[in-house]
Amino acid sequence: MVKTERKKDLLEQFQYEKIKGDVSYSSLMKKTGSNGKGFLDRYFLLHRNYVIYYKPGKGNIKPDDKQEPQGYINLKECIYEDTKEQKEPLQFQIAHKHRIYIIKAKDDSTKNQFLTLLKTRIKALSLINVDQLGSPEKVQIEINEYKEKLPNPLILPDRVSPDKAKDWVNEMRNYNIIFQKADPHIKQVEQFSEYCKDGVKDYVDWFSGPEGPRLAMIRCEETVLTNWVEYITKTKNEIASYEDTRYFKEDYSDITKHLKNMLLLIEAYHDYMRTCRKNTKPTDRFLEEKALFDDYITKYSRIQSCMDFKLDDDLVEGVSTITCIGEKKTGPNNSVIGLSSSNSSICSNKMSFFASNQDGNYPTVDLMNLNSDSMPFIPDTSSEQGNRKYDSEDEKQPDEASTAPSQSSLGTLEKWEYSNNSLIKPDNGREEVENNNGNGSSLNFDPRWDYSNGYFKSKNMGVVLWNGKSWVWSHIKTSYKIRFDWIAASQTFTFVSPKPRTGLSLSVSSQSNSSTSSLSSLTGSNATKKSNHPATIYPDWQIKDNGSSLISIVSPNKNQTTDNFSHLESNNKIPPAVLLLVAMTPHIQKSLYHIGIGPKYITNN
């Protein structure tokens, strides 16, 4: 029996505390001594390309930390076919080119498991050309090159935005190229203890472990591509709802950018599949979505800009008077109801509202729970029948009727004037209410609307969009809106009942500049409810007499409100949106009052 040479540097390298964390298998077994002494207890370790055996420790079967091995077997130099079981129970042999090692396990399970690992390792080592790997110094240089291109740790994102998608695909492509080159090389290097020292060992262990580049790239691919797929699919499913709250080209700037981002994701997805998954078949996924998004982008590009939209050009020049006609109650009448609060804010939850009367008493109203039935009505005793003004002699009623509390008749309720894109209620119809905090500030609604770039704007009643198709009122302090759609064929404004907005939250927010305005910027994209929204169903309105009158269309099956004006008349042709704005201004004021944004403005009848 030939005694194999034991290298001093390897004995020091295999000191137990240095390798005990880098072991594939360990067990206490027996081996025959080289001097023929019979079986001796030895603690065996399978460490990369070596089987290493120690004397048992003093207080434990495991060696002491500073203990060097009794010997080692280089599996690269072993013969696969001759490493096998022996006839004697529990015995097997490891066939080194210079010696046969006889080992006896403590049981069959230990023998079978250890022998299987040995044969697998010997076979793998036999396929490696150590001369090609070169010296440890050469391996060190190559590993350092991998470190620069696949650093430890390899930090990869969980989410990738559309503008970074192309860069991410290129980065992942480069990582895959480096990995495909490094992986087989490192799998060979990690088999040899001679190479796996210091920094090389750390990098090789990381590279092949659960935190290495391969699993990191798989996790990154899964999360990023899954996010892209969900985002593209959700956009496809919800794209039709985006038009519910967009009217001019400026309002579509955010969704247009979003759709272009989805096209970037589709392109990046296909690019990734072509370059990083070369073994998979080419995919035609998202071709339908791509065509759909392209169509919508083209459609949105053709929508009219608010800067280009103009009201009717064939109007009579000068001032046009609009007369509002409705029921004139001859009994108790409302006065102006204004707002009283301890400070200048008008958005607190509870505020005291007052109505002027002869006694100077002011009823208190809960702003947040107020509705039309809970409004305080104060008798108007400031005028007598003899002082009342009538629009015609036919409107006068017998003296007895003037004292009846519930009788009414059609008559002029108020008048507006329209000229040069401005709608004004003359001063003789405007009630002034002063704040009772002593600072003299006015709390009434300002009855004036000015039109420009597709919007009617008021000082404190919000804005009304008009694009020739939809008439939409909104206010910056509430998400509640009033909408009518224009049916040109029947010259009718049809009321659209509010519905909760649903849809994808876009990753790109729109911004308005000084020259253009979008509905979101005018009404406030972060508007919140001050209280429950009004549930009012408004009647439809129809244009008559070549654009000089507006008639209320009340359907008994729709539970529509029938207060305020029954119809409007003008001495000239008026843009339909202007007539509807006059008709809806009292309703806008009531809505603001209900929500808790401003004071109540009620006309004198």
From TrEMBL:
Residues 373-410, 422-444, 506-533 are annotated as: Disordered. Residues 22-123 form the PH domain. SUPFAM superfamilies: PH domain-like. CDD domains: PH (cd00821). It comes from the Eukaryota. GO terms for molecular function: enzyme activator activity; phosphatidylinositol-3,4,5-trisphosphate binding; phosphatidylinositol-3,4-bisphosphate binding; phospholipid binding; protein kinase regulator activity. Residues 506-526 have a biased composition (Low complexity). Residues 373-385 have a biased composition (Polar residues). GO terms for cellular component: cytoplasmic side of plasma membrane; cytosol; leading edge membrane; macropinocytic cup; phagocytic cup; plasma membrane; pseudopodium. One of its GO terms (biological process) is adenylate cyclase-modulating G protein-coupled receptor signaling pathway. SMART domains: PH. This is PH domain-containing protein.
